[in-house]
Design brief:
The protein is α/β, with parallel strands linked by helices and 241 residues long. Helix content is 36%, strand content 24%. An eight-stranded mixed beta sheet has the order 3-2-1-4-5-8-6-7. The chain has one domain: Vaccinia Virus protein VP39 (Rossmann fold), CATH 3.40.50.150. The termini are far apart. Strand 4, helix 5 and strand 5 form a beta-alpha-beta unit.
Length: 241
């Protein structure tokens, strides 16, 4: 089934993540790398938000988590007081996210759909594009729509994987085939996005990168850490130019 060039949705990716939906909230299962990553990125995101808005609380800030999965990042931000909307093209992800949020007593607005389904006139204080752009169809359209949703005084977070030989060896050959840390086929190296391309896309849509950092992992302890090395995973924080 071919992807629609007028949509950011990729049917193959949607089917893949629908199959993985039941695994999201098991920190010891196949999604453990994402849980480890979440322990690193949640305080990073929260601290950057507080610093940007000059506040000591996320209370009242409107956050849009694009490609939210089952809510691993949406939930801790909601617990800190943010008004969170999560959107995902995989219906099973949203079903799991809603169920988990209800059981946790959290009020999160979960939507089944793509970024282009949102009202283009609506804006959010914070946009989260975390580990999602390497899975979308029509990346220019995706970036244009998500940047448009960023409030003039808001922030966008972008996290993805660099397209290098190192990332191919570590995130696909190592993590998926040799160590079997993640299901095979989770990633497609051809879809990885270099920091230069990501920054150029943000700039084309009126945002400028204020900070960027790499994310590394110790394969022996499985601990993740912030690093200057952006050869594999990296994160960016952008604001309106």
């Amino acid at each position: 089934m071919s992807a629609n060039i007028y949509s950011t949705q990729d049917p193959v990716e949607i089917a893949k993540f629908n199959r993985l939906a039941d695994l999201w909230w098991d920190p010891n299962g196949q999604m453990w790398p994402l849980h480890r990553l979440n322990h690193l990125r949640t305080p990073f995101v929260a601290q950057e938000i507080l610093r940007h808005f000059g506040t000591d609380s996320l209370q009242g800030l409107r956050v849009l988590d694009i490609g939210c999965g089952a809510g691993l990042l949406a939930e801790p931000l909601a617990r800190q007081g943010a008004s969170v909307t999560g959107i995902d093209v995989a219906g099973k992800n949203i079903a799991i996210a809603r169920q988990h949020a209800r059981s946790a007593g959290l009020n999160i607005n979960y939507l089944h759909g793509a970024v282009e389904d949102l009202d283009p006139g609506e804006t959010f204080d914070v946009i989260l594009n975390m580990e999602v752009i390497e899975h979308v169809n029509n990346l220019p359209m995706f970036m244009e729509r998500s940047c448009r949703l960023t409030h003039p005084s808001g922030l966008m977070f972008l996290a993805t994987i660099n397209r290098t030989w190192f990332s191919w060896l570590t995130t696909i050959v190592g993590a998926e085939y040799l160590l079997r840390w993640m299901p095979r086929g989770t990633h497609d190296w051809q879809r990885y996005v270099t920091p230069e391309d990501a920054e150029a896309s943000l700039r084309q849509n009126g945002l400028s990168v204020k900070s960027k950092t790499g994310v590394g992992m110790n394969p022996f302890t499985r601990q993740l850490f912030i690093t200057r090395n952006m050869a594999a995973n990296y994160m960016m924080v952008a604001t309106r130019s």
